[in-house]
Input
Amino acid sequence: MAAFTIAAGTGNWFSALALGVTLLKCLLIPTYHSTDFEVHRNWLAITHSLPISQWYYEATSEWTLDYPPFFAWFEYILSHVAKYFDQEMLNVRNLNYSSSRTLLFQRFSVIFMDVLFVYAVHECCKCIDGKKVGKELTEKPKFILSVLLLWNFGLLIVDHIHFQYNGFLFGLMLLSIARLFQKRHMEGAFFFAVLLHFKHIYLYVAPAYGVYLLRSYCFTANKPDGSIRWNSFSFVRVISLGLVVFLVSALSLGPFLALNQLPQVFSRLFPFKRGLCHAYWAPNFWALYNALDKVLSVIGLKLKFLDPNNIPKASMTSGLVQQFQHTVLPSVTPLTTLICTLIAILPSIFCLWFKPQGPRGFLRCLTLCALSSFMFGWHVHEKAILLAILPMSLLSVQKAGDASIFLILTTTGHYSLFPLLFTAPELPIKILLMLLFTIYSISSLKTLFRKEKPLFNWMETFYLLGLGPLEVCCEFVFPFTSWKEGNGSRLKNTLLLPTQTRI
Amino acid sequence: MEKWYLMTIVVLIGLTVRWTVSLNSYSGAGKPPMFGDYEAQRHWQEITFNLPVKQWYFNSSDNNLQYWGLDYPPLTAYHSLLCAYVAKFINPDWIALHTSRGYESQAHKLFMRTTVLIADLLIYIPAVVLYCCCLKDISTKKKIANALCILLYPGLILIDYGHFQNIYNSVSLGFALWGVLGVSCDWDLLGSLAFCLAINYKQMELYHSLPFFCFLLGKCFKKGLKGKGFVLLVKLACTVVASFVLCWLPFFTEREQTLQVLRRLFPVDRGLFEDKVANIWCSFNVFLKIRDILPRHIQLIMSFCFTFLSLLPACIKLTLQPSSKGFRLTLLKLYSVILFFFLYHFRPVCLVLSEIPFMSTWFLLVSTFSLLPLLLKDELLMPSVVTTMAFFIACVTSFSIFEKTSEEELQLKSFSISVRKYLPCFTFLSRMIQYLFLISVITMVLLTLMTVTLDPPQKLPDLFSVLVCFVSCLNFLFFLVYFNIIIMWDSKSGRNQKKIS
Output
């Protein structure tokens, strides 16, 4: 009985939070799932039934394998568990197969892999120093950070409703960040290298890692004024870092190099034939650019500056994934977006190099890299905003300034994910969970920093409160007007842009 | 953090859990010709919308009482009518007379689930929130934890949002809770009005009327029958009569109408139990086929007598010494008795969650477990397991129930002192109860696993359901004894205190 008491009754809040959110995830099993569900089923089938040489060539289904090899191996391992649930899902020809057992298996696999995320959050909490605000458990930074990460609205709806495996990937990223905070740089580098070979979207933040490790790990000491001390350069460290990255990459890409399939793999990983914007516009700079282009073309047509015959027929707003030409403004190429992104991350990289502020500076740079790539990247998904939100949570519980930026970023970022769940039964869920997370994050951070100046000025408060009426318009008013709902969500996304520019 | 933020979050969690459970299947889904309770609700909307009031409770060519005839009081009918108006606005096919029988669609399911959620949001949840805020002598944090545990109670969620019982339990329970709240906080008229509404929504609430009546009578006596007490009595009587008249107005026009409604509400030809329920008669039936031996009306009279007699001492005490706490405890005893005999309504055990957290949690877990056969029939295994675990974790972390198993915490101090007068070695009560809890939980888990994974033997197809009933009933017997002990020894210590003061 005593052991039972210790295990269950001592009020171990972290376990309770983790268990609670896991139970919520179990309740979300019967919800709507997107085509990503079929994507992963297809990958299970491909990796299970075909030899490695076929993995990146198989194209029976339209959802071809476009993640790096480690993820393919992960699906391979999963498929060996899947065969005990339903053998039929592993048949490549069974397109759109979704028996109840398949659903159960896939959902449980996501929930199970979140264990890594829970562990990473636990490690991150250790890196936060507890400010002495009050004795209340709910006011401790560790508690607030745990809730903000474990119960993150974006992660819940993207992973457990829409269906993806972001949980454990973000777990790897948070773990590498935690290791860097704990001065275990080699482990941090290792985890990040592994992460890159699971999902290459994390390349967005690779510059931050690269510069930080070079500046703060390879140069072992600074001059008293904080600037670089060139003679403290450690070749051993550089070489060991390089070795780690090389070995991980060799493990991942080696087999495909041996099969001479590297070009094919890279063409799958970086499909530039897809358009500038995703089917649903991510609320980034190019969305505004497209909107401006559209507005100008409409004005141009009305004022007879443009010839209707010259306008390309394909519309950017039709929700398809294709390449387009802009009508009025100059067209955008992948190279342009790369240059814009590089220009955007340059200031933070410079800061990280010339004025390193330890792990916290690194985290800031990482968040800015993620955000800049989101704003100016090619074919960005709106889910990529999570790349900026999750690391920023760590900063938000330590400084009031960071907290206010975090709150605006997270509220609008999460709100921009709403179009992902467009079915009627999921409407109450997304609204309830959004309210839950938003109310909690705002009230807990306000309480944490109540002794400092208020978190929001009147403009920011007005902006945030305006999201409510906007949602009412989009969900309840637009569908009954002559505008199609698709246009409504694009309008919503373009209105969310001001938040990014503020940051 | 400020109280109202936390309370909002608790309410949002409760609502989220409710809605996610509602995404699952409902009773009678896709099972013609009778379908299930969900179809009953839809049918009542059809009847109340299309037929005039006078025909609602009568058998006719348009209203076949054998097919889910209306058998709840008028307020349920009015509620169905309200829902029907909304349904008409959205899609008239849902309530078209005759042609909408067995109508099932995703949109309709969404509509029905939404009506339950709105009813919950308007009546039950505010009652719970207000109740927890009005609790005395506990910290803000405990009040909010209390609200969380009550809102997470799996039994109510699974029945209303999963199974979709043919009555909106949250409405009747919400009204009853408003009644308790009103009466405990000295808003007597409001309390009695709310309770009358509860009775007019679901006639089963009549069982609760005895403690209500005794408590209010006791208050009148306390104020003195010659002065304020008499005024209060008159006011209460007027409130009760007025609320009944308002609800039954269309049915008071003819004697035959009133009688027919009463006949539908209290069908004396139903027996002591239907299906396999976890009450004493079902368990008893295993040994002695009581259902077959005694005629129906004798069974009914017997059960009423038992219930009434076992409640009498507590009710008399309540009349003589009206106190909020005594009122709640009597309600509790009432529930254990009713459960024992009839299996209805275990939720108000939630009312004493903060005072006796360990026993209440145990009680509520068993009550959810007793629903297992019903839930499995509706394919609600996953939501039931998940919500039960969530409830358990909430109770454990909010109240640290495993640290509250001492004699004093279980309110058994006076009892064990009395026993120790005769048996000096009786010191192991607390540990005994802990072990019983462990055994109980292990048995429940094992039975659940067995019911899900194994097939019952050919000769005994209902083996698992009966076992579930039996185990639940044993637990309820234990709780009956426990609550009786608390009430009786509470009265004794009360008397002693009176002597001293």
Observations:
- Residues 17-261+336-478 of chain A form one domain.
- Residues 1-11 of chain A have pLDDT under 50 and may be disordered.
- The CA atoms of residues 45 and 262 of chain A lie 22 Å apart.
- Chain A has one domain: 17-261+336-478.
